[in-house]
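testing teh design pipeline on a random one, pls ignore if ur not involved
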C-alpha cells in the first residue's frame, strides 16, 4: 500500500505537532498540567497538547538553578506516564544571551534530553542565535544519550526579528516559530497602544487590539508566511484574558482560519479545549476529506471526479492534511481511512 505521506509530494509540509502548546511556570501548575495531559490523552486517544515547563517567566530571580532542576525532574517523571500514547513535554529556557541560558541547558537537556519533545528558545533575533542554541543543546543532549536531534522552537519578539523571520524559519533545526506579542508591542516605545496586547470583544472592541492593529497583524502574517514557506509550524501567541471564554474561542478561530496559524499557546487549562475546537476540522470537513482520499487511493492517486468536481494530487494533498489535523486533535477518523493512521509496523498486515 502506498501511503498518502509517501505519494502526495510537492509541497513542504510541517511536522504534525499538537495544535495547543500549554505553558506553566509554577510547580503546582506544572504537575496539574501534566496530569491533565494524561487525562485528555486517554479521552481523545492522542496527546492533544504539549506541556511546556517554563524557566524564563517561571524561575524566580536567583532561583534559576533550583527551578531548572525541578523542570528536569518533572520532565523525566512524565516520560511514559501515559500508557501507549507518548507524552509531549517541553521546556522553555532563558534566552541565549541570558546568564542562566547555559545552566538551563546543561541541567534540563543534560539530564532530561531524552524526555523532551523540544526546547523553546525565547527572544531569538537571528539565525546566529539559533546556531548558538543548537551548539549547546546538541552537546548536552548527546551526554544524556539522545540519539535523534532535539527540535528547537523559537520565540520572535522584536521588530528586527520579524524582519528576519524567513531567515530564522529556513534554519534546519527550527521546527516551530511563536510570536511574542507583549514584548513586540513594548519594543515600539509606546508607538503601539497597550490595547494591542489584548483582545477585545463586544462593546470593548472599539480600540485596536492584537487582531486589528496593523503592525501587530503584519508581524503575525510575516511569521505565518515564513513558516509555511519552509515547512515549519506557526504558533500563535497567548490570549491573556484567560477568564473570557468568548475571547479565546474567537481569537483561536481568527488565528486558525484567518491568519494561517496551525498551533496556539495556552496559559490556562480553560483555554485548551477552545483551542482544540477552533483548530479542529469539522465533522463535515473530515468526512469529505475521507471520501476523497479513499476514492483517490482506490485508483492509485490518479485524478477523480467527486461531487461534480475534478480532484488530483494537488487537492488530495489538502484533504490529506485535513485528516492529519483531525488525527492530531483527537477527532474520530472515518473507518475507510483509519488504516492510514495505524503504526507503520501494522501496515503490512493490513495489506494481506
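output:
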Amino acid at each position: 500500500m502506498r501511503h498518502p505521506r509517501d505519494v502526495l509530494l510537492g509541497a513542504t509540509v510541517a511536522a504534525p505537532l499538537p495544535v495547543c502548546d500549554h505553558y506553566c511556570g509554577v510547580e503546582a501548575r506544572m504537575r496539574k498540567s501534566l496530569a491533565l495531559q494524561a487525562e485528555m490523552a486517554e479521552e481523545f486517544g492522542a496527546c492533544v497538547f504539549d506541556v511546556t515547563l517554563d524557566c524564563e517567566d517561571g524561575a524566580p530571580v536567583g532561583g534559576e538553578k533550583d527551578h531548572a532542576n525541578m523542570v528536569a525532574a518533572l520532565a523525566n517523571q512524565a516520560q511514559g506516564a501515559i500508557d501507549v500514547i507518548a507524552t509531549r513535554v517541553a521546556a522553555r529556557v532563558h534566552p541565549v544571551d541570558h546568564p542562566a541560558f547555559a545552566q538551563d541547558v546543561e541541567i534540563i537537556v543534560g539530564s532530561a534530553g531524552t524526555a523532551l519533545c523540544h526546547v523553546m528558545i525565547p527572544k531569538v533575533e537571528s539565525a546566529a542565535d539559533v546556531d548558538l542554541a543548537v551548539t549547546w543543546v546538541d552537546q548536552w543532549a548527546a551526554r544524556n544519550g539522545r540519539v535523534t536531534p532535539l527540535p528547537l522552537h523559537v520565540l520572535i519578539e522584536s521588530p528586527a526579528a520579524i524582519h528576519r523571520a524567513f531567515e530564522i524559519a529556513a534554519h534546519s533545526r527550527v521546527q516551530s516559530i511563536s510570536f511574542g506579542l507583549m514584548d513586540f508591542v513594548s519594543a515600539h516605545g509606546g508607538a503601539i497602544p497597550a490595547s494591542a496586547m489584548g483582545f477585545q470583544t463586544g462593546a470593548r472592541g472599539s480600540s485596536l487590539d492584537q487582531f486589528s492593529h496593523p503592525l501587530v497583524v503584519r508581524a503575525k502574517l510575516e511569521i505565518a508566511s515564513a513558516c509555511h514557506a519552509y515547512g515549519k509550524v506557526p504558533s500563535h501567541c497567548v490570549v491573556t484574558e484567560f477568564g473570557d471564554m468568548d475571547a479565546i474561542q474567537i481569537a483561536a478561530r481568527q488565528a486558525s482560519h484567518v491568519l494561517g496559524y496551525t498551533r496556539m499557546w495556552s496559559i490556562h487549562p480553560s483555554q485548551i479545549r477552545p483551542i482544540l475546537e477552533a483548530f479542529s476540522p469539522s465533522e463535515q470537513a473530515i468526512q469529505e476529506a475521507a471520501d476523497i482520499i479513499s476514492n483517490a487511493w482506490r485508483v492509485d492517486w490518479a485524478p477523480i471526479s467527486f461531487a461534480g468536481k475534478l480532484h488530483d494530487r494537488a487537492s488530495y494533498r489538502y484533504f490529506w492534511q485535513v485528516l492529519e489535523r483531525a488525527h492530531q486533535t483527537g477527532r474520530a477518523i472515518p473507518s475507510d481511512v483509519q488504516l492510514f493512521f495505524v503504526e507503520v509496523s501494522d501496515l503490512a498486515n493490513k495489506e494481506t
